[in-house]
Each structure stands twice: as structure tokens, then as C-alpha cells.
Amino acid sequence: MKLVTSVVPCKRQASGPPSGSLGVVGAVLVCASALMLALGCGPQGSGPAEETTAAAGSGGEYPVTLTDSAGREVTIEHEPERIASMAPSVTETLFAVGAGEKVVGVTTSDDYPEEVRDLETVGDFQQVNVEKILALETDLLFLSFAYSTEERAEELEEQTQADVVVVDPETLDEVLESVETVGLAAGEPEGGRELRQRMEADLREVEEAVAGEPRPTVFYEVFGDPLQTVGPGSFIHDALVRAGGENIAADTNEAYPTYSAETVVERDPDFYLLGSLSGTSPEDIADRPGFAELTAVREGQVATVEDDLISRPGPRLPQGVRQIAETLHPESFSGE
Predict the structure, then answer these.
(1) Could you give the CA distance from residue 324 to residue 218 in angstroms, rounded to a whole number?
(2) pTM of the shown model
(3) Chain mean position to CA 198
(4) By C-alpha distance, which of 38, 44, 47, 316 is closest to 166?
(5) Domains of the chain
(6) SS3 category, 42
(7) What is the DSSP string of 75-144?
(8) Residue-wise over 205-238: b if at least 16 C-beta within 10 A, else e?
């Protein structure tokens, strides 16, 4: 997504699973609703917003026009005052850019920051409660997951009379771009830029810490049954690489492929990482046929990664990358 500043008179970004979601999940996280919600934006979506145009300046001038992940061009005539978010990652981003006080509705899976627990719930990744959106007088609605299509976004825009923006980042770079999109749409463009800069700085710090270290091979389990992992095109794969690892599933060329246990045994990863919502514990791994002989199991290098950090494409993603890096390269962080 390219940020372009220009004067305009006064769209939506798809989520990662259905990616970034059903957008870091459409094809990917389709098997587990809980994880899709954790992802906040889903595994395979429409991609990142490609172009954003706003009135010159950084004070949130309106109108503002942006193109979201679904390829829709959305013009927001006035600064939004009542925002609803259909993805935990977007909700976190709204609070992080300084628009938290405008948020009036969230999903049933939103739990961070603490303030969201007191907000009205307006649906989950499967459905939007249009009646509640209307009752809350929502003027800006962020979509993700199954809503990451142009058709569904247009339908909800007509039903709710709110501006609709889809946020569905698939790659780590797109996650960084998406926080600026959220900030711009919500009237906090400077907050969006500053958040992106902080996230980029945190990621650079991790990369510099592991620079020059040997890259251990890694397998990341998204789900246990069927066995599902991450590959190129997913922000979790990008996180493994940034953290100094070599993903054994990198040659699948799929964002969230199913993976055979036999191939895991054959490739024998140095580390075996489990998403905390995978349904599998480190103790379960050794009980699978052939897994007891994996290098990761024999050397005690099976670890759980907090899904709220690594599977939600939002402000805390760099923390997830760091958690993985500290697992793969503990010596690089021992002095802290």
C-alpha cells in the first residue's frame, strides 16, 4: 500500500486469514473460528490497500479517500465519531493510534486493551449485527474475515449507512501498512504513522539482535488436526524469517497449507513452535508417530507462541516476533 498525500475533495482493507485471515484465514484459518478471531484480520484475504489519498497535512483533514484491500475506493466525508471494529487486531490498532475513545462496538473475541471488555459487542467473524451497528449510530465500520469481499462490504455499507473499510493484511509488510490505513480512516493519521514507525523500530531491533546467527530450521503448527502450518504469503511466515529462523514449509508456496506429519519427520526441524490456539501442547508432540525422534523433541526445543501476539496482525505483532526470536536465539537476548 502506497501512502500518497494530495488534496482531494472529500476503502477497506481485507483481513489476513479468510486472509490475513478468511482474509490469516480464508483458506488458512478456515478450520478454527477461535483462531480466526485471534488473528483479528484473517489468513488469506484480498491483499493490502494499494493507495491512500488524503487532504494535505497530518491533522486528519477531511474528506479523505483510500483504497482498501478489497480494491474498493472509499471516501470518508467527515471525521468519524463512532467506530465499530469486526477484528480484534483492528480494535487494538484503533486504540494504539489514539482513536480508542471513538470505538463503540467490537467483536465477541475482543479482549485487548482492557477497555474493550466494557464495549458493546456487535458480532463475530461470522456475522455482523446490523441492528446493533445502527443502534450505536456507527459512522465507520472496519471489516475483516468473511467480510473481506467487495460485495459484502458494499452490502453492509448500504445496510448500516456507515463508511466501510476492510483491513485484511496478509504479509508482515502489509500489517505495517494497515496500521497507517486505520489511523488515516479514523482521523488519526499521525498516530498511524508513529505506530508504524515504532513497530518497524521494534522489528529492526530483533533483526539486528539475530543478525549473523545460524538460522535453525523451524516448523510452526497453526492447527493440530488436520496439521496446518504457515508458508510464504502469511505474516507468521514472515515473522519466523525476521526472528532468524528457516521455515521448513517455505517451499509450499501457500500461506497456510496443510502439511503431512511424514514430511515433518523427514525434514526434522530444529525447533517446533505451536500457536497457543493450535489445540496441541508441547507434551502432545512426542506422542505422534515418529515425532519422539525429532531433533526439536529430543533437545527440548518445542515451544508455544502466544497467538494474541503472533496471529493478530496488529500493534503487538513485533512482540510475537521477538518471542520467537528469543526462543530460537536465546543467547542473542541473554544480556537484556
Answers:
(1) 10
(2) 0.84
(3) 17
(4) 47
(5) 2-197 (3.40.50.1980), 212-333 (3.40.50.1980)
(6) coil
(7) EE-S--SSEEESSHHHHHHHHHHT-GGGEEEE-TT---SGGGGGSEE-B-SS-B-HHHHHHTT-SEEEE-
(8) ebeebbeeeebbbbbbbbbbeebbbbbbbbbbbb
Q: Which three cell numbers, joined as nine digits, stand for 60? A: 486528519
Task: List strand residue ranges (DSSP E) for 120-216, in order.
Answer: 120-121, 140-143, 163-166
Distance, in Å, from the CA atom of 174 to the CA atom of 184, rounded to the nearest integer, reads 15
Find out whether 69 and 168 touch, Cβ atoms under 8 Å: yes
Dihedral sign, Cα of residue 26, residue 29, residue 33, residue 35:
negative
Report the alpha-carbon distance of residue 20 to residue 236 in Å, rounded.
10
Q: pLDDT of the chain along its 336 residues, tens only?
A: 333 322 222 322 333 343 333 333 433 333 444 454 444 444 344 455 544 444 433 456 899 999 898 989 999 999 999 999 999 999 999 999 999 999 999 999 999 999 999 999 999 878 899 999 999 999 999 998 767 789 999 999 999 999 999 999 999 999 999 999 999 999 999 999 999 999 999 999 999 999 999 999 999 999 999 999 999 999 999 999 999 999 999 999 999 999 999 999 999 999 999 999 999 999 999 999 999 999 999 999 999 999 999 999 999 999 999 999 999 999 999 876
